[in-house]
Amino acid sequence: MEGGVRLRAGASKQDVREKVWEYLERSGLAAFPRPVHRRIPNFKGASHAATRLLSLQDFKAANTVKINPDAPQKNARFLTLEARKTLLVPTPRLRTGLFNKIVPPPGATKEILRICATSQGIKEYSVPVGLDGKARVDLVVVGSVAVSEKGWRIGKGEGYADMEYAMMVSMGAVQEDTPVVTIVHDCQVVDIAEELLDDHDLTVDYILTPTRTIKTNCKRPKPQGILWYKVSYEMLEKIPILKSLRYREKQTGKDVTLQDEHSDLANANPPAALNEKAMAENTRPQAAVGSAQQGQHYVESDSSSPQLEGSGMITTVYVGNIPPSIRVSELKCALREFHATPLRLNWQGAQHRAFLDYKDKSAAESAVSSLKGLSLGGNTLRVELAKNQRHKGQVEINSQK
In angstroms, how far is CA 358 from the centroid of its own chain? Predict the structure, then answer.
């Protein structure tokens, strides 16, 4: 109950959030954007609190720093760029990937670096970092709504910071001892009951406020990776890169059963139609597949799908950057996994590409969205609508370089 925020016994996480948001607004400490409710709140003194990073040995030693894109961390992003460190910022709501790397223009002045640290600058001066980008993060800076001196943190309730960290663990971007820092106002440092914490909640090692630097010496373990049993189908659709991470972990033998699937598994046997489809997949002739493994041209149509000929709606998706080691069977497996099975697959392994025919533009665009960020054999695949569409699913192969 520090800094004027009073919490009743038995307060829930949402109670804590509401009390902090209300106090910041009522006391005149809240800063743009307002109101601070349902946000990682910006506060007066955030810029000064961020300067405490400069005295942290862990910051001085860091080469790559990941900082969230919220307003209270703007000066932390600027100080990181000014120190000529690599700055990674999560993509908003993780819609298009995990990180963007901020790349200031050559010879950038302090004024330009300040622009790079803003939300607009992040859009203009950043490049995406794929799953195969081999990112190694030395220091993580996250926002908080409330945090305790023991290092227990409460975010705004959407779980993105926790998920970002879990995904970084899955990618190998952070280690068990990678320090985590949060920047808050003194009034956001409150007592948090340990029973409010869950095993997916991220803890922090340092708390920076306008008046002090708190080393938490937190002993509670940080998340060890993505807890798939807490991930829903809906979250998987909202965060495309999660699909790629799930596919990668499934290939290594990890249990990636989703939250929704636990209840599904308790239901009766799958419908006969699904069994028939699975049987059809398993009983297709393999001779053609064998020849495709040597990179030869290979086309396979789904015999259970409507005929391609005579249809003017077919839309083709181009898949490029396929590693030489990948077989067509592996691509087909990934397409099934991501619910992006085409009407026809045109495999051109020697050219490290494939063309996928879908029944219409909507289905093709859905496939592109589902496959975005997919990594096979260490390469992030290039997936986009094929250029120069023609009737009956024909595509001008030479248009793709």
Answer: 27
pLDDT digits (tens, 9 = 90+) for 292-336: 344 455 566 654 444 444 445 889 999 998 888 888 888 888 888
Is-contact 135 174, C-beta < 8 A?
no
**Cα distance between residue 267 and residue 131, in whole Å:** 35
Instruction: Map tokens 């997949």 to a residue.
Output: 281
Residue appearing with tokens 């009766």: 268
Lowest mean pLDDT among 197-201, 297-301, 333-337, 364-368: 297-301
Start-to-end Cα distance in the chain: 62
Ramachandran assignment for 338, one of left (phi > 0), alpha (psi -120 to 50 degrees), beta (any other):
alpha
Determine the Cα–Cα distance for residues 191 and 306; give it in Å rounded to an integer: 62
Pairing of strands 315-320, 382-385: antiparallel
- Work out the pLDDT band at 287, boundaries 50, 70, 90: very low
- Of 85, 73, 62, 79, which is closest to residue 208 (Cα–Cα)? 73
**What residues contact 196, with CB distance under 8 A and at least 6 apart?**
12, 13, 16, 152, 154
pTM above 0.85, yes or no: no
* pLDDT tens figures, 223-239: 888 888 888 888 887 77
Helices (H) and strands (E) in the chain, counts: 14, 17
**Can you tell me the mean pLDDT for 15-30?**
95
Which two tokens mark 238?
Answer: 């909202």
Per-residue DSSP letters for 314-345?
-EEEEEE---TT--HHHHHHHHHHTT---SEE
**Long-range interactions of 289-297: CB distance < 8 A, separation 24+:** 289/327, 289/328, 289/329, 292/327, 292/328, 292/347, 292/349, 293/327, 293/328, 293/329, 293/349, 294/349, 295/324, 295/349, 295/350, 296/349, 296/350, 297/346, 297/347, 297/348, 297/350
Preceding omega of 33 cis (within 30 degrees of 0): yes
